[in-house]
């Protein structure tokens, strides 16, 4: 029997200051599962080392696809499968992964116990086991005010004022106040009260929202939690098999326009008129699970083409788009760097004649496109459908819970976060091997932002070899362009182009009322946007003067 391969990373300091211990036993084959007997032996060995199982949470992803708690502040459940019917035992006896979580602050003690025992686990050959040891922390809710963090803690209503860089991340997780709450002491307390109620509602789904460092952290790890088995069933057979993003890929993504479609027909500015608002519910979650959307999971290849075909390959192209048609410009977002995904360009090619669109490829480099072959991409629905359905079920049972809405609506922003590093001084910046964000120089870091702060500068950089926190960030440019094109096609196909006054990502403002209810997925009336008023700006509804 071959010795187990153990990867150990002890006492990793996370970006928020928390310490996490991780030990991983990697499988030799994907066919093997961790048996209940193996877990029992593991727990027995840990107990022999003097560890109280009451201090641990033990859970695993079962063969049945469930997250099953084995121990939670109680003795290890010896009867977990022993006393169950045979069909249930067969379904539950086998885990794709197992987590053991310490809810005490004795990190060094547990690290030594686990690592010492792991080294002798030859009888658990071919198993994948991940141990995560962390301190349970309280939480604070906060808002930003004048570059400071204004917060109240879980157990106190006292206002705490902190510098962002010196927050007490060792003892508290931080959750920012959501939309709908004012930056006042009363609303901070109101949000805390609501937050506690919402997090308690989610506990029955094994989601302890306040145990995460922040909302982005909660979003990502619950996404991983809900999709672990889904990824294993996908063609890449596991999240960890998504290839690292290369620098040249990153540069192509960042040269695209990556925002939502936001336009205003200026003919309607400063004119009193009756308007009708419409909004797509859960726009991004719905589209990310759309069967027509795909995203890359492997590295693309730089290439060069001489002309546009009727339908372009999946990728990003360096070209110039020229169109003077006013209606087209209201439903299309241009890239300042002249980089467009195939979703954008195929849309332009489809309506080329109607709007008199000209497309010009750049020909002055060795390449003018980044191409992904069929083997490099995956259907988004194969990953996100089940995730979306699970969250929707929880949402339907808790319709006023904003935390579950956060877990779904913020997934794109979470998956595409920069891997930021804060530099304390210009002197430190000058000592780095660094270049501007979109420069093609292969320096160690790229400068993300440099902004003056109270006494110095706020300097943020990203490593060139890992510019994003997650390799799922390949979804970035492709999804944003897919979402913009989806809105543009909706407007054209439903003959409301002449009536479209404003577009705000997932919302429409029209000068005529319409009924879209015959469609499968459609924007619903947003009654608070209806009425007669004067449009002053596109930016926010607060700039609208109601009559």
- The residue-averaged pLDDT reads 82
Helix content: 25-40%
Number of strands: 28
Number of helices: 15
Strand content: 25-35%
Tell me the structural class. Answer: alpha+beta
Keywords:
disordered N terminus; 15 helices; alpha+beta; about 550 residues; single chain
Provide a short characterization of the protein structure.
A hairpin with a 6-residue loop joins strand 8 and strand 9 (160-163). It is globular and about 75 Å long. The longest helix is centred in the middle third of the chain and has 19 residues, at 215-233.
List the helices and strands and how they pair.
Blueprint: E1 6-13, E2 19-25, H1 36-48, E3 56-62, E4 67-72, H2 86-92, E5 95-102, H3 107-118, E6 129-133, E7 138-145, E8 148-153, E9 160-163, E10 172-176, H4 185-202, H5 215-233, H6 247-255, E11 262-264, E12 272-279, H7 283-288, E13 294-296, E14 301-303, E15 315-322, H8 326-330, E16 339-341, H9 342-350, H10 352-355, E17 358-361, E18 369-371, E19 377-379, H11 381-397, H12 402-409, H13 411-415, E20 421-423, H14 426-430, E21 434-436, E22 445-452, E23 457-463, H15 475-493, E24 500-504, E25 507-510, E26 524-525, E27 531-534, E28 545-546
Parallel strand pairs: 5-6, 7-10, 21-22
Antiparallel strand pairs: 1-2, 2-6, 3-4, 3-5, 7-8, 8-9, 11-24, 12-25, 12-26, 12-27, 13-19, 14-18, 15-16, 15-17, 15-18, 20-23, 22-23, 24-25, 27-28
Characterize the structure shown.
The chain has 547 residues and is an alpha+beta fold. Among the domains are: 6-133, no CATH class; 138-237 and 381-414, no CATH class; 420-465, no CATH class. The protein has 15 helices and 28 strands. The strands form 6 sheets. Strands 11, 12, 24, 25, 26, 27 and 28 form a 7-stranded antiparallel sheet that branches. Mean pLDDT is 82; it is low at 1-28, 72-76 and 103-135.
């Amino acid at each position: 029997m071959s010795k187990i391969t153990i990867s150990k990373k002890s006492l990793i300091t996370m970006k928020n200051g928390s310490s996490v211990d991780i030990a991983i036993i990697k499988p030799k084959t994907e066919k093997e599962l961790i048996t209940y007997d193996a877990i029992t032996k593991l727990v027995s060995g840990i107990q022999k080392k003097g560890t109280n199982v009451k201090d641990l949470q033990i859970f695993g992803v079962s063969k049945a696809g469930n997250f099953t708690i084995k121990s939670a502040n109680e003795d290890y459940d010896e009867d977990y499968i022993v006393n169950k019917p045979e069909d249930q035992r067969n379904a539950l006896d086998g885990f794709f992964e197992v987590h053991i979580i310490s809810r005490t602050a004795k990190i060094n003690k547990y690290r030594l116990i686990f690592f010492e025992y792991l080294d002798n686990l030859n009888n658990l050959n071919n198993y994948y086991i991940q141990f995560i040891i962390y301190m349970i922390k309280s939480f604070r809710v906060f808002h930003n005010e004048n570059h400071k963090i204004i917060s109240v803690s879980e157990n106190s209503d006292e206002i705490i004022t902190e510098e962002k860089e010196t927050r007490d991340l060792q003892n508290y997780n931080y959750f920012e106040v959501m939309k709908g709450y004012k930056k006042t002491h009363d609303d901070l307390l109101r949000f805390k009260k609501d937050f506690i109620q919402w997090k308690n509602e989610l506990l029955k789904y094994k989601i302890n929202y306040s145990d995460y460092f922040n909302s982005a952290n909660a979003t990502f790890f619950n996404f991983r939690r809900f999709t672990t088995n889904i990824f294993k069933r996908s063609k890449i057979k596991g999240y960890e098999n998504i290839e690292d993003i290369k620098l040249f890929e990153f540069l192509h993504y960042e040269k695209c326009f990556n925002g939502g479609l936001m336009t205003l027909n200026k003919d309607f500015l400063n004119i009193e008129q009756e308007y009708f608002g419409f909004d797509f519910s859960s726009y991004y979650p719905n589209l990310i699970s759309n069967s027509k959307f795909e995203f890359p999971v492997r590295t693309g290849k730089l290439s060069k083409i001489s002309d546009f075909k009727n339908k372009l390959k999946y990728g990003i192209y360096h070209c110039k788009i020229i169109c003077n048609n006013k209606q087209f410009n209201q439903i299309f977002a241009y890239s300042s760097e002249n980089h467009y995904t195939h979703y954008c360009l195929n849309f332009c090619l489809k309506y080329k004649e109607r709007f008199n669109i000209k497309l010009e490829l750049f020909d002055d480099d060795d390449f003018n496109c980044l191409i992904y072959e069929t083997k490099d991409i995956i259907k988004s629905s194969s990953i996100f459908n089940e995730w979306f359905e699970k969250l929707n079920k929880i949402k339907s049972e808790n319709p006023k819970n904003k935390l579950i809405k956060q877990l779904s609506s913020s997934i794109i922003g979470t998956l595409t976060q920069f891997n930021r590093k804060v530099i304390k001084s210009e002197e430190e910046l000058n000592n780095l091997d660094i270049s501007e964000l979109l420069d093609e120089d292969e320096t160690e870091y790229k400068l993300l932002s440099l902004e003056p702060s109270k006494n110095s500068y706020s300097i943020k950089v990203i490593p060139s070899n890992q510019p994003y926190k997650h390799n799922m960030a390949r979804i970035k440019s492709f999804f944003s362009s897919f979402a913009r094109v989806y809105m543009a096609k909706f407007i054209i196909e439903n003959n409301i182009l002449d009536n479209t006054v404003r577009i705000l990502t997932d919302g429409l403002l029209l000068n005529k009322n319409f009924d879209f209810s015959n469609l499968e997925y459609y924007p619903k009336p947003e009654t608070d946007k209806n009425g007669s008023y004067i449009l002053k700006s596109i930016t926010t509804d607060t700039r609208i003067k109601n009559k």
